[in-house]
Design goal:
Largest sheet: 7 strands, antiparallel
Distance between the termini: 25 Å
Helix content: under 10%
Mean pLDDT: 79
Order of helices and strands: EEEEEEHE
Shape: globular
CATH class: Mainly Beta
Number of domains: 1
Structural class: mainly beta
CATH topology: SH3 type barrels
């Protein structure tokens, strides 16, 4: 698995998933090691949300991968490093990337590892 293959998938139904995404060449996306992205607004006095990863269909073998037609996918986007770090703790190499810069375009430089956060369930964005 390459970290470049990890995408956020927004389904037409509104669900947001994160996983290893590949094009099967037949108008479908194949998604492996998938989690559902869940938002938590635990403190209503603050405007920030906490984002967590939840099992997607934990009663199935969907973690091994499933195919979804591209017609059911609204869009694919790159996850911010904080979310990618949490995902990598579960499915990846454990490599930790530095915090994402605030809405800056990618400059082609390689990220440097940083110490992992103490939160294993939620990421404050």
């Amino acid at each position: 698995m390459s970290m470049l293959d990890i995408k956020i998938v927004r389904l037409n139904s509104g669900e947001e998933l994160i996983g290893e995404v590949k094009d099967d060449g037949a108008n479908n996306w194949v998604i492996k090691n998938v989690c559902q992205i869940a938002a938590s607004y635990a403190d209503p006095t603050q405007a920030t949300a906490r984002i967590g990863l939840a099992p997607f269909m934990p009663y199935s073998k969907v973690k091994d991968g499933f195919t979804v037609s591209k017609t059911f996918v609204a869009f694919l986007v790159e996850p911010v490093n904080e979310l990618l770090n949490e995902y990598n703790k579960v499915f990846g190499s454990g490599l930790v990337l530095p915090p994402s810069p605030a809405q800056q375009p990618f400059d082609g430089s390689k990220p440097q590892p940083v110490a992992p956060s103490d939160s294993h369930a939620f990421v404050k964005i």
